Amino acid sequence: MRASISLPGCVRRLLRCCVLISIGTAAAMQGAIARDTDTQYTDKRARIDYTLHCSGCHGMDGLGKPAAGIPVFTDQVGHFLRMPEGRAFLMQVPGLLGARLPDDRAAAVTTWMVRAFAGPSLPPDFVPYTAEEAKRYRESRPADVIGKRNALYRQLLEHGYAIQ
Ligand code: HEC
User: Which of 52, 66, 97, 162 has the highest CB neighbour number within 10 Å of its CB?
Assistant: First the structure.
């Protein structure tokens, strides 16, 4: 008669536990080394570009410094997107031009900024900026950007959208 190997219940439970832990760890590691999708990568890079090139003036909260002439983004920057000229204007500001980002990154950082701060002012049909737009808008920049903003500001106000 062969003696059957019988492990005490607690050892069996321990072994089962170890197996489950190693399966779990392997799955977690696979998740960690999985490459970001293109969209995730673009989004992370845009956040970094905002942090490096924009947040010094506009803040990580998008609140700017209105007293020092740096406008608020939070809950209002999306109103500009209600007009084609406003959409263009958001890419014609000196801060973005000065950052000298390539077209795809300029488009991504503007898209990130709008999504991060526009809040309820974001039109529901907003589509991300493209590299082609970045090139076109930056090349056709109005000489008087502040004058442009003031004109847009008045137009928006007429339609009931107040910008600080
Ligand atoms: C040195 C400070 C400074 C930096 C850096 C800066 N900005 Fe600005 N930004 C301003 C000032 C001042 C204004 C308002 C005057 C103007 O429109 O030029 C402004 C205006 C804007 C506006 C228009 C908002 C409105 O309500 O009129 C947008 C959009 C904008 N900036 C985006 C950016 C982005 C994106 C970056 C980074 C790539 C950036 N800015 C970097 C100072 C800065």
Answer: 97
What integer pLDDT is reported at residue 82 of this predicted model?
96
Distances (CA, A) of 98 to 5, 83, 106, 136: 75, 24, 11, 16
Ligand 1 centre distance from Cα of residue 72 (Å): 9
Residues with CB under 6 A from ligand 1: 53-54, 56-58, 69-71, 77, 90, 93-96, 99, 109-110, 113, 145-146, 149, 163
The 3-state secondary structure of 111-149 reads HHHHHHHCHHHCCCCCCCCCHHHHHHHHHCCCCCHHHHH
- How far apart are the CA of 153 and the centre of ligand 1, in A? 15
pLDDT of residue 139: 95
User: What does the DSSP 8-state code read for residue 25?
Assistant: H
Smallest CA-to-CA distance from 161 within 78, 74, 69 is with 78
pLDDT in tens, 53-95: 999 999 999 999 999 999 999 999 999 999 999 999 999 999 9
